[in-house]
Amino acid sequence: MSRNKTRKFAQNKLRDNVIEPGKAIYTRIKGNWHTDYFRNKNELVIELGCGKGEYTVGLADRFPDKNFIGVDVKGDRIWVGSGQAIERELKNVAFLRTQMQFLPEFFDDNEADEMWLTFPDPRPKDRDEKRRLTHPRYMNHYRQVLKPDGWFRFKTDNTILFDYTIEIIRNNEVKVKNLEYTKDLYRSHLVEEHYGITTKYEKLFSQQGETIKYMKFQFEYEH
Ligand SMILES: C[S@@+](CC[C@H](N)C(=O)[O-])C[C@H]1O[C@@H](n2cnc3c(N)ncnc32)[C@H](O)[C@@H]1O
Q: Does domain 3-219 have CATH number 3.40.228.10?
């Protein structure tokens, strides 16, 4: 490991807003985000695959009455967002370090009020379909953790991943309601839900001339 990474990982260990393996809170946070971390009853918003956490920190700054949790497997990326939250003295931010397939080990059923999936790796090869973060096996985890009627919001530059996700919804592999989407967010009325916060990958791809695709929906639950 590079010296730089070692330094960041050592700092993450000392930061309360990084919830990661080796810390006591990591194994007891499930179902206890309000009582054991945020110490309020405000809504919980999760950003999946948060990378450097621009969206998590940006939204937390804008909505001080909600709690934001950025989830990513990469500790050196989380380190960036965690440091910015500390600098801005944002108490309504946490970062959880885990693989997405373990999400239900860190959240009770219906514990989250809203979810964002921002610019996940597109995994365009057919053989990687199961690794796409919008694959039904992941969607089932999101559905489990999200409250009924909680909004799921997904942004990407990638047409293949976006169309794939629309297709699995149309095929009823993932059952949703109130789906709305655009393939050009900046020229859509849905741009109001962008809040002017641009992540690293969003900047990169829009500079390359890609339009930003966005969808939102609520999961359908069996009665
Ligand atoms: C392309 S980056 C996007 C980062 C950020 N959302 C943005 O818009 O700049 C995708 C992120 O998803 C994370 N990621 C990919 N697969 C994951 C998985 N299975 N579990 C947890 N994080 C994952 C990566 O570590 C990476 O930080």
A: no
